[in-house]
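User: Continuing from earlier, I have the next pair ready.

Assistant: Great, send them over.

User: Here they are, in order.

Assistant: Folding the first of the pair now:
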Amino acid sequence: MQSPVAALARRLRRPRRRTADAPPVDGAQQPAGDAAAPPRRYAGSRLHLALAVATVLAAAAAGTAWDAHHRAEQRDVAVRQALATAGPAAKAIFSYDYRSFDASVANGRAFVTGPFADEYAETTSALKSTAVSEQAVVLAEVSASGVIRAGSAEVELLLYLNQYRRNANTDGEKVDQNRVVLEMHRVGGEWKVARATAI
């Protein structure tokens, strides 16, 4: 029994060109002056074309798969980094102590960027006199967090935030439980808070 490789090779073998002196097949007379028939190259050409198309498609599929995998890896890294920054950022932004108010604000300012940095500066500036007069101390702690959406340079997070507060007008310590959405942006090699929204 002939091997499939040999059979395929024989089928794809090009026919030899017949010379003018060779006897015609089946005794038929070859018309005088006619050029020899061109070799049949169609089967081989079709195979080469099919292989070329298959190679291109395979390369495109591999490239697409690699790109998707690379993007997923970038998102995973972004989420991990944003989550690692979100806790300290929320604590700094939503905490203050009337005894060291300016230092508290400077600490929070290190975690913000863009228009939100201006908003944070305006809000804390207006809050200072009240915090000092009421001797207010607020400590924020993140109890839980989750990802709303993620990209390689922007991540939106939902934080469950407890604010432990005390001041001259209250007895003991009070706890406010809040939910805050932080929009984190990659700025250079760091993650910053570009927007904070209480919900």
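And the other member of the pair:
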Amino acid sequence: MEAKLNQGLHRLACVCLLGLIVLCLGWELWWAPLRPGGSLLALKVVPLLFGVRGVLQARLYTLQWVAMLSLLYLMEGTVRAWSDFSPLSETLAWAEILLSLGLYLSAILYVRPAKRASRAQRSH
């Protein structure tokens, strides 16, 4: 049962990370860029790209720092959901909020049992 839960959390983290990359690129280059023709804000996906391999391979350390990184995207989505005037941009901001929150929660919950086991092993 726990193995299936962990597998589901890992899959959710992978889907949210890849979805966040696609969303941020599409948003800033085609769907609702700040400037017509796209903007350099699309470069915000670069930090996420560094974590793709480690997240796909379920590396705990990578999942930890990607979870912390996702909080920046959560903040950006929140600010843009309340400040962007375009309805499309506001919708994309809410999608960014959901994806980054999904990434954060799934990564943290996936890593949690391993951290507990490590602490228990050190105390013995």
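Worth noting for the second one:
The first helix runs from residue 2 to 31. The two ends are 27 Å apart (CA to CA).
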